[in-house]
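pls ignore typos typing on phone
2-phosphoglycolic acid + seq
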Amino acid sequence: MPLRISELRAVEILDSRARPTLAITLTTADGTHIHAGVPSGASTGTREAVELRDGDPARFAGQGVQQAVGHVNAEIAQALVGRDFASAAEVDDALIALDGTATKARLGANAIVGVSLAAARADAAVSGKELWQSLADAAGTTARLPVPHFNVVNGGAHAANNLDFQEFMLAPLGAPSLPEAVRAGAEVYARLKARLRAAGHPTGLGDEGGFAPDLDRPEDVLTLLVQAIADAGYTPGREGIAIALDPAASEFFTNGHYRVAGRDLTTDQLIDRYEEMIDRFPVWSIEDGLAENDWDGWVRLTERLGDRIQLMGDDIFVTNPDIITEAIERKVGNSALIKVNQIGTVTETLEAMTVCDRAGYTQMISHRSGETPDAFIADLAVGTGCGQIKSGAPARGERVAKYNRFLELAAVHATLPYGLRSAT
Ligand code: PGA
Ligand code: ZN
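k done
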């Protein structure tokens, strides 16, 4: 059935960080109401699609999104309402053409991505499919439940503590099923809280629901995580619970140096430090280990560690098929973080994942630090079958909405496979 939109509306709402974002309501010709919420990052890559913010200091310190809302309600609605589309991909093409810029800056990537998410849902609804099934059909992929990566210690731009590294994640690679993986994440989270409390650290949370202790060295956090994993009765390591890092190194790269725990490191010193970490701790994946403009460093990082662990590009790749293509040619990393709002449409996101697949680069679907309860990315992860997701801690509603969606899918669709798609 063709996709016909009879009404399209955006509203300015708040994200999980008290910043404005957009909620989209799309009504299909048969009267089905579809909703979507737009996520927003804090440690953004410079080449991401551009969010439109009002810049009016009198409202939300300039962060308002009334212009983006206005674009959905006027120009985008005019262009889409009443037309027949063969697929959500056609809606995305229309959005890209209407905007006319390479970065989606005119209408706003936040406006465009919201409509794109809603269109993907509407497409699924008119064809009587669940969203994950519809996305799997669009992408030509085999559905699979992903390994959740729980961000249990927050630092960097996501917390007001001393930690330079942004994310320390639990990766239950050895869990036999999705529900067991979620259980492992929640149990270790509770043990970690107890350890922090016993050591006199505050147990307040960062933006993604992880704890934000005032520790200086990343190794101190890794030691704590290994202890908490063991406390909860699990084995630290790939056969049990491994660890994934997102240092988000662009955030502490200045004047050619990386500032870690009060010391300036060269690129090669930081690579040495990572090597020591993976020798001593069960770190299986490092995202944004180096800065987005340190491409030569990334080449060396990949040569040194690429056959031992997953080296994932986030700020450096920004879910952009062209940038990922260049990275593959230059042998930069072996994996890509995937965020729909970095590129701005679901169709381009699927394209980026296809580019990765062809080169053997693994992929992890990701939330943003500013979120809504919308669990679209859960269905995206299942439908594309990429085998990995990160959606923050196993705590806070906007984070667990995604994990809870997996629990529902695992219960209803017992035949869905679970886990990494292939060993790295
Ligand atoms: P962001 O952080 O959503 O603030 O950009 C997430 C990440 O760096 O992976
Ligand atoms: Zn990142």
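The first strand starts at residue 3 and ends at 14. The two ends are 40 Å apart (CA to CA). more later
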